[in-house]
What we know:
This protein is of the alpha/beta class. The chain has helices at residues 22-32, 50-55, 70-77, 98-117, 156-174, 196-201, 221-233, 250-256, 269-276, 286-294, 301-305, 315-325, 334-351, and strands spanning 13-17, 39-44, 60-63, 82-85, 123-129, 179-185, 188-189, 205-209, 215-216, 219-220, 238-242, 248-249, 260-264. It is elongated, with a radius of gyration of 21 Å.
Amino acid sequence: MTDDKGSQTPPRSVLVTGASTFLGGYLVARLAADPAIERVVAVDSRVPTKNLMRRMGRADFLRLDIRRPAIAKAIASYDVDTVVHAAPSIMDSVEHSAAIKELNVVGTMQVCAACQRSPSVKRLVLRSSARVYGAGPSDPGFFSEGTPARKEPRRGYGRDLIDMEGYARGLSRRRQDIGVSILRFQSILGPRIRTRMSAYLSMPVVPTAFGYQPRLQFLHEEDALAALAHATLNPRPGTFNVAGDGIVTLSQSVHRAGHVKLPVPATLISPLVSVLQNGRLPGMRSEHTSYLSYGRVLDTTRMRSELGFEPRYTSMETLDDFIARGKNEPVVSADAWRSLEQRAVATATRLQ
């Protein structure tokens, strides 16, 4: 790599945090399979599963805590030029806690500080999320990367993301030779990855906010991995929304899964989700219920024009693949839904 932020020189030595997670681990596997990359270093405080470790091939695994100064030693020892920070806990499949906040915020601070001190580092890719925009009744039809949140998250995962992105931008200002790419992923779905949204849509009876029809987008797990790999191999500094084409309403999502909507006041969604999941899915905070009331849609123009990335799956195709290959059991079959729709149309026609 050169000192030019816009350099297209591919990485030589890559370090990936969060190697025990789905995105971090499988990204390591993809990069390790690329002969153009001399060295791939996988970092996590937890040991990946045997299957994931086997997929990582020639990558070196280091068991260390990114909140500690040891991350700087690892970067220096392996002469790392590209850091992919995939460790932040933002999949939201567990309740946010002080420990998770420390991992997200303090961990990102330490990673950015280590990059700043290392003369070899020329590139940082940060996995972020569209949750930085929040969700509310005054939201625009499409959030572009420069659109400020109408209701900025004040706590939880959303707040963590804002702080993490702040550290990454601070690194870019202090070390202007380091190109920083921030990828804001839309809600990820797939047959292998577990997120709060995937658990929510897998419920046979799905509590929804009465009187609201949120507009949603989805990002396939394979496209999320491909976007991270693309940003690693094709340096493009900046902030980028990443989502599949198209819009899917929450009602469509529930019906296509063959499940049943249970419209309730928004304040009751969280306790009902916890009860219906027998405690397996944590109750939802206000930021989650706002999202399920108002939805959130991203403008992905920069993803294509500047990042140069094109997802393989649309939002609807992502949903359908999640339903087809996941572990969802429909309460109402597709044939039954079609029959009900035909009867409803026939009845409406007679009444006209």
